[in-house]
Write a structure and sequence with these properties.
Pfam families: Peptidase_M20. With about 400 residues, the chain is α/β, with parallel strands linked by helices. Helix content is about 35%, strand content about 25%. The mean pLDDT is about 95. The chain binds (2S)-amino(hydroxy)ethanoic acid and manganese (II) ion (3 copies). The site of (2S)-amino(hydroxy)ethanoic acid has 5 residues, from loops.
Length: about 400
């Protein structure tokens, strides 16, 4: 099934896929998912936050939900997100073929803008569903072209005025299980379950100096924000110790001319660690270094926390129950964030991982062996049968 969507959203410039919330390729994938669901006799609805729910039978309470996302990071791989959705559809095929019928309400979900690849906040659809971000803040988020989430949702036919915590939809979820390609190399067997997710936040550092001419401006007359921006990148690496992960993957000088000293530089920091205190301490150390570097260059610095989620420890009861039903599979921590990480604070949640032989993710090289993918589908089907009987 991944082959069916292999041509959707290819990024010819960067390589990989650039499928972002409500952009053309992502809308195409939504349409593809609805077709696939309807073909299986599932009843599809879109909730007020742009998330899709494909119900097998009646919608109802104490539902067993599985799903993931279809959007990608810029230049992302084919598996992160879509593998969870295609495996859920394939698991339904397996179960329908053997005459299984869920004894409780069951649905496959597709969450909106999980990567934050367009609007900058990860897990936007599940955060809105759970009330983990305010509608005002979410609707005002702008994409790189200055289009707000409200405008993008409207253009896609959704009513942005409806977004917000969806108590009713949350209450319907009895248990949520997300299958995902592993991002890292912890698995030595095809399938595992998740034990925890790192604490994870994103901060925006805006350095402001004085735009000027690259040739006509003496060094001593400069206030070049690119200098403290560069110091921030180095400080992030220096502060990431003992398992902490601090990353700068996006640095945008404005105006960005080769012969122009930038007037401002925006730098986004992605920081993660095993607990809240360690993550905050790492970010504090990096921020201190950034303020120091800005001062030395006569630049201003404004830091904005754009999103943050504390460490997620998955419900060990559900995790061990699933691992047992699968004949005993390993539990492993993940450094990547997921919609399951947002929902875990509200409903019993578990994750299944499918082995990634290279561990590479958020890159076109992301890959999983067909044999492992098949094991993942069988494991998800067995989990649905185990929990849904
Ligand atoms: O950033 C993450 O870890 C997730 O893939 N959104
Ligand atoms: Mn991802
Ligand atoms: Mn993902
Ligand atoms: Mn000139």
């Amino acid at each position: 099934m991944l082959d069916q969507i292999a041509d959707v959203g290819k990024d010819l410039k960067r390589g990989g896929y650039s499928r972002h919330g409500y952009n053309k390729p992502e809308l195409e994938l939504r349409h593809w998912f609805v077709e696939q669901a309807v073909r299986r006799g599932l009843n599809v609805e879109t909730d007020r936050n742009g998330n899709l729910w494909a119900w097998w039978g009646e919608r109802g309470d104490n539902a067993l939900i599985t799903g993931s996302h279809l959007d990608s990071v810029p230049g992302g791989g084919a598996f992160d997100g879509p593998l969870g959705v295609t495996s859920a559809l394939e698991a339904v095929d397996l179960l329908q073929a053997k005459g299984f019928k869920p004894a409780r309400p069951f649905a496959i979900t597709v969450f909106a803008e999980e990567e934050g690849g367009r609007f900058g906040v990860a897990c936007l659809g599940s955060r809105l569903l759970a009330g983990a971000i305010s509608p005002e803040k979410a609707l005002a988020l702008k994409d790189p072209d200055g289009i707000t989430l409200a405008e993008a949702m409207k253009a896609a036919g959704y009513d942005p005025d409806l977004v917000g915590r969806d108590e009713r939809a949350l209450k319907r979820i009895g248990q949520f299980v997300e299958l995902h390609v592993e991002q890292g190399r912890g698995l030595t067997v095809p399938v595992g379950v998740a034990s925890s997710i790192l604490a994870h936040g994103r901060w925006r550092f805006t350095f402001a100096g004085e735009g000027n001419h690259a040739g006509a401006t003496l060094i001593e007359d400069r206030r070049d924000p690119m200098l403290p921006a560069s110091q921030l990148v180095l400080a992030a690496r220096k502060a990431a110790r003992g398992g902490g992960r601090a990353t700068v993957g996006r640095l945008v000088p404005n105006p960005g001319g080769t012969n122009v000293i930038a007037s401002t530089v925006d730098v986004w920091l992605d920081a993660r660690d095993t607990d809240d205190a360690r993550t905050r301490a790492m970010v504090a150390e990096i921020s201190e270094a950034a303020h120091q570097a800005a001062k030395e260059e006569g630049c201003e610095l404004r830091i904005t926390e754009e999103s943050y989620g504390d460490t997620v420890h998955f419900d060990s009861g559900l995790r061990d129950d699933i691992a047992g039903a699968l004949g005993g599979v390993p539990a492993l921590p993940t450094g990547a964030g997921h919609d399951a990480g947002i929902l875990a604070a509200h409903v019993p949640t578990a994750m299944l991982f499918v082995r990634n032989p290279t561990g590479v993710s958020h890159a076109p090289e992301e890959f999983a062996e067909q044999a492992d993918v098949d094991e993942g589908v069988k494991a998800l089907a067995a989990t649905i049968e185990h929990l849904g009987s």
